[in-house]
Amino acid sequence: MTYRISASSQAGDKAIVQAKKSTIDFGIIAADADALPSPADLFLSSFAACILKNVERFSSLLKFTYARASIEVEAVRLENPPRMDSLEYTLVIYSEDDRLNVDLLKKNIEKYGTIYNTVKLSCKVSGNISVKGGI
Question: Which of 11, 33, 72, 102 shows a CA-CA span of 20 to 30 A to 127?
Answer without folding.
Answer: 33
